[in-house]
Each structure stands twice: as structure tokens, then as C-alpha cells.
Amino acid sequence: MTSYKELGLVNTVELFKKAVKGGFAIPAYNFNNMEQLQAIIQACVETKSPVILQVSAGARKYANQTMLQYMAKGAVEYAKELGCNIPIVLHLDHGDSFELCKNCIETGFSSVMIDGSHLPYDENVALTKKVVEFAHSQKDYVSVEGELGVLAGVEDDVSSEHSHYTQPAEVQDFVKKTGVDSLAISIGTSHGRAKFKPEQCTKTADGILIPPPLRFDILEEIEKKLPGFPIVLHGSSSVPIEYVKMIEQYGGKLSDSVGIPEEQLRKAAKSAVCKINIDSDGRLAMTALIRKVLSEKPDEFDPRKYIGPARDELKKLYAHKNKNVLGSAGQA
Ligand code: G3H
Ligand code: 13P
Ligand code: ZN
């Protein structure tokens, strides 16, 4: 048993209070490897932003739980070495069972998501409540995120063809019965780099897809039902066109890419939305730079020479998000 406090981590409770009050959102960046983690920490220290390091079940398998524990501790020490002791959360993304959440809690996670959103309502309540009871009864309180409503999109461990918006009529009952610390909702975001079908979008003259707007009306209704309660947005990558173009210029093929426009995320971050999940944008930035370097320098075979520039680009991307999209810069 390792408590997150031994690793120098914090849970989300105080961070979310500050974020809701201050009208900004805490970045929740997914990572699987050292370079992604370095880029996140460098960007968050430079912009003085708190951060949620987010690990999916697939990422945990990929990186290995023991490695992850030491990486999280390393991230805390690295931030101090870079000159700012920013608050760092280690969060399980899309936990799909009580056992997985329990295991993460026992191995140093300070926050977990139990995603019962695909289950019938009562089963979602029962599973979420069970995780909350375990997490909150630890010596060091572990925070729990639940989800109501289903996002469309496909990722390794998360997949659903259609989205179902969160029903505002259910949120009070869910929060009351489960005791969750935050609630992920579905208002039109979606996982992955192709968030909408082309027929759901409009097109600019040069063929760029413009997605349907987020359902801010649903968000407002939810805020009325749960005043001041921390709300989470998944599937919030913007899918920057410059990375998509760079990937395609250097041999990739990513048709129908479309994300959530930054202005809409900025608007959401000013509301009760206090955690915004971003994974795909980091994947795109990294892939774009690796493709560029390898294609421009075909004789290069030192991984540092192509992963290094990808890491630098990632850092730039995260710093930009903190400053201009989430508003978390200067809030550490
Ligand atoms: O929402 C899901 C995240 O993007 C994690 O994706 O399961 O492929 O690691 P993954
Ligand atoms: P994106 O695929 O939009 O980056 O969403 C990530 C996410 O929701 C992780 O839980
Ligand atoms: Zn997600």
C-alpha cells in the first residue's frame, strides 16, 4: 500500500474549489511515457499551472504500474527542481471496475474515475458509490469522478458510436446517491481525433470541417441543479489543423479530423467545468514532429533526435492550452 501523499501528490478537492471559484479549468493531460510526462511538467511549471496527470487502463498496462508510481514521484521532484512546487494529481482515467480503482488507490493514485456511464442508471449509481466509499475511507482521502451521459468516439479502451447527452434531471440524484467529488458530463464533446462525422459538420471554402457547437444550454441546466459542483469535460482535444496537415505532409493519413474549437473550451472553462481532458492533441503533436524529423533526416536513428523535438512541441502545446484555453496559468 502506497499513499499518494508519500509520492508528494494531492487529490482534486482543493484544486476544484479554486477552479470553480476562479473560472478556470485544471488541465488533465494523458500520458504513457517519460517524454510526455516531462513535457507536461515543463509546461505546467513554466506557466505555474496545477495539473492532473491522467493514466488510462491501457496506459497503465503499457507503462507498468510500478514504473508509473516512480514516474509520478519523479514528476513531483522534477517540478521542484525546475523551480515551482505545482500541485500534481495522479488520476485514473475511465476506470471500468471497482478492482481497478482499488488497485490504483492502493498504489499511489490520488484520484480515480469510475466510468459507469454505459451502464443502466441504477448500476452506474451502485458501482460509483462502491468506489466512492472505498476511496473516501482511505487514511488520505482519494477523490472520485463519476460520469453521466455517453460520449461518442473510439479509443483503445473507450468506445461508443453514438453520444447520449447528460440528462440534467438525473444529476442531483446521482451526486447525492454516489457522493462523487466531480461529474463528467456529455454535452457534445467526443473522444479521439475525428469527433464528428463530416455530415454532422459544416465546411469552410477550403474544406475544413466546422463541428456542431457544444450544448451550453445543457451545461447551464446542470449548473443550476448543482450550483458550484465540479464538472468535467472529456474528449476536449481541439485537433489542431497544423498537426493534421504536418502528419499528412509527411506520409500520414488522417481523414475527417475535427476537434472542439478552443473558444468553446475557453467558454466552458469559465463555468463550473473545472477539469478538461486532453489526450489526442498530444498524440497529434508528437506524431507530427516525429514524422517531420524522420522524413527530413532519413539517416537519423538516435531516438533522442526525433523524440526530443516532439517533446519540445508537446511542451509548447500544453503551455498554450494552460495560458489561452484553460486559464490555469498562474493558478498553482
Ligand atoms: O479517453 C481516453 C483516453 O484518450 C485514453 O485513451 O485508452 O487509448 O489510452 P487510451
Ligand atoms: P481527447 O481524445 O479529445 O483528447 O479526449 C481525451 C479524454 O477524454 C481522456 O479521458
Ligand atoms: Zn475520456
What does this structure look like?
The protein is of the alpha/beta class. The protein is built from 12 helices and 13 strands. The strands form 3 sheets. It has an 8-stranded parallel β-barrel, surrounded by 10 helices. Strand 4, helix 6 and strand 5 (143-148) form a beta-alpha-beta unit. Helix 2 (34-46) packs across helix 12 (303-326) and helix 11 packs antiparallel against helix 12 (303-326). The longest helix is centred in the C-terminal third of the chain and has 24 residues, at 303-326. The protein is globular. The two termini are 28 Å apart. Zinc ion binds next to loops.
Set out the fold topology.
Layout: H1 13-22, E1 26-30, H2 34-46, E2 51-56, H3 57-63, H4 65-81, E3 88-95, H5 98-106, E4 111-114, H6 121-136, E5 143-148, E6 152-154, E7 159-160, H7 168-178, E8 182-185, E9 190-191, E10 202-203, E11 209-210, H8 216-225, E12 231-233, H9 241-249, H10 262-269, E13 273-278, H11 280-296, H12 303-326
Parallel strand pairs: 1-2, 1-13, 2-3, 3-4, 4-5, 5-8, 6-9, 8-12, 12-13
Antiparallel strand pairs: 6-7, 10-11
Helix pairs in contact: 2-4, 2-12, 5-6, 7-8, 9-11, 11-12
The chain binds glyceraldehyde-3-phosphate (G3H), 1,3-dihydroxyacetonephosphate and zinc ion (ZN).
Glyceraldehyde-3-phosphate binds at residues 30, 56, 58-59, 93-94, 155-158, 191, 234, 279.
In order across it, which strands form the biggest sheet? 1-2-3-4-5-8-12-13
User: Terminal Cα separation, in Å?
Assistant: 28 Å
Determine the strand fraction and express it as a percent band: 15-25%
Compute the number of helices.
Answer: 12
**Helical amount:** 40-55%
Main beta-sheet strand count, sense and barrel state = 8 strands, parallel, barrel
> Cα-atom Rg, whole angstroms?
19 Å
- Can you count the beta strands? 13
Bound molecules: glyceraldehyde-3-phosphate, 1,3-dihydroxyacetonephosphate, zinc ion
Sheet/helix structural class: alpha/beta
Shape: globular
Oligomeric composition of the shown chains: single chain
Order of helices and strands: HEHEHHEHEHEEEHEEEEHEHHEHH
Mean pLDDT: 96
Catalogue the unreliable spans.
none
